[in-house]
């Protein structure tokens, strides 16, 4: 495919609405507070846990901290994928991708995983609306409240992703 063909592909696409861009950027940030908190735990800061609670959460091997850091990074990368629904790399594969670089991405390849993501995120994070009603034995009262507020933005991730996915889907109707 020539550069002019690639340019024609992207010029035929409808630009995302301003609200969709805003929502995608907010979705990319909702995982940050809880991720930073988990990284702090991995580094040995109690951050709302009692000493015993922190030992039980992190464990006594290096795998507990590695898991917490990996989970934080994976969660943030997943959140940042929402940006692909409003940016060029969600419509045309970046040139550095082997075999598909510079080629248009079929909308279904983006839309289906995005809707699956909405479903998974809804199941995963909606229960955090009830965080404060559940006891957490290894935490201090202040830590329990703090963690609730750090995880609360994740509840917004699924509706934000749904809105941005709907916008992407509408823009790519054929």
Automatic annotation (TrEMBL):
TM ranges are 22-45, 65-86, 107-134, 146-168
Which key words are in the record? Answer: Membrane, Transmembrane, Transmembrane helix
Q: What is this protein called?
A: Uncharacterized protein
